[in-house]
Amino acid sequence: MAFVDPRVQERHGAAVGSIGFFEAATQDAALAVLEPACTWLSANGVREVWAPFNGNPFYGVGLREDRFGEPPFVGCAHQPSTYCSYLEVAGFIRMTGYLNFEIDLAGDTWRSQPIDVPGVTFRSASRRRFRDEVARFMSLHNDAFRDVWGEAVVSAEEAIEVMTRARLAIDPSLFQFSVVDGSDLGMVLCMANVHEVIAPQRAPLTSPSGVWKMATRRRRAKTVGLLSVGMLPELQSRGIGTALVTRACAAAARLGFERMEYALVAETNEASKSTAARFGGKLCRRFGVYRKEL
Fold this sequence. Notes:
25% strand
């Protein structure tokens, strides 16, 4: 699927187009869809193509570069090892990528991190007001990541459409907000890696069967994904993000999770990589984004 997202173009100030949701069984089949996709993008004013880049963080981003024999990790892309060569033959080169870091919840490193910040309180999301909480989360996410490469504004409506389906799989203690002077100014969102328990069942997450299995079997998962943590730019560097991650780790440990995976950290996001390092995070997955000039 080739598309032109004005939000991405505005963010990066360039005539960028994307190819996402890319699937191919052979190299010839890959060329047969990639070449006309690039031709269409060129006809629509695009001068540079990114792939795989789905334009919305909820649909995964990048090309899986390792651990091919495992089920996909929640919120992350999943492709076979052949896709890299398919893109390269089509004229794409790797430009950047995303990283996942593993945090040992049974260890002590995360326990040494601060859990409180003077003048800041914390609250768990309300499941009864889940739609409102998702809208608030998305607004904060858009502001917190506005200067991070690859991020585009996602509307509250888009977020609600996708996240409401996962409501039963998100424990409120893993979805928290930081509060300053009565206003939510930071957030952290974690979710059990439900793929550990439903991937063998071959049920799409958004199907009725997948939603039911996600709700009833999520407690069997041993890994939790840290999908987003951030705060308004003017409050960054005050330790609020660290406290949010510490609280997420503590909640996950109480729920019986053994490890946390800090997911999809942009290779250029030094602040998030530094946070992962403070918690003893070890690099465990890579995802690449490729580009082609037209």
